[in-house]
Design a protein that fits this description.
The protein has a domain of about 100 residues: Arc Repressor Mutant, subunit A. By secondary structure, the protein is mostly helical. The chain has 6 helices and 2 strands, in the order H-H-H-E-E-H-H-H. It starts with a helix and ends with a helix. A hairpin with a 5-residue loop joins strand 1 and strand 2. A two-stranded antiparallel sheet has the order 1-2. The chain is globular, with a radius of gyration of 23 Å.
Length: about 170
């Protein structure tokens, strides 16, 4: 349930690609710079997603990566599973091995239930849901930053007026 850095980067990269016009490609370098992700690490992730069929890639100067799946029809779980691969349903949080239904640790059943619930929730969220939520969040942040800079400019103007009236 605890996602890797690779998964976080994959989600961000897929969101970036989903913002592009259909048929538009982006090179790994462009995505890397836009998202501040190390290019070599991102390139490996993008290649893996291409092998899994979620992206397509074209080589050459006009090449790059583009979505090869419908963001409205592809779940967040599909993307996470493509990066993480098949994992044991329940990793023992206490580090006790083996930890399975037959040889349970004290929190095995609870953790298993949480993981299953998390997976079901991810299956119900489309990549487009993530893209739209990310877009809304960016708009809120930009509005907040603009409002903050307007207040700062206003305070600066007021400070100048006060300074000029005093001096």
């Amino acid at each position: 349930m605890i996602q890797s850095t690779a998964t976080k980067y994959a989600i961000r990269a897929v969101c970036h690609l989903a913002h592009l016009e259909p048929g538009t490609r982006a090179q790994a370098r462009e995505i890397s710079e836009a998202l501040s992700i190390p290019q070599a690490y991102l390139s490996k992730i993008l290649q893996d997603l291409t092998k899994k069929g979620l992206l397509s890639s074209t080589k050459g100067p006009a090449g790059g990566f583009e979505l090869n799946c419908s963001p409205t029809q592809t779940s967040l779980y599909t993307l996470v599973h493509a990066v993480e691969g098949p994992r044991p349903e329940v990793d023992c949080l206490l580090g006790l091995s083996p930890c399975a239904d037959e040889t349970k640790c004290p929190i095995h059943d609870t953790w298993k239930e949480i993981c299953e619930s998390f997976h079901e929730r991810m299956k119900s969220i489309s990549l487009m849901d993530v893209v739209e939520a990310e877009k809304e969040k960016r708009q809120v942040l930009e509005t907040t930053m603009l409002a903050g800079s307007a207040v700062s400019r206003s305070e600066t103007d007021t400070d100048r007026k006060l300074d000029s009236s005093v001096g």
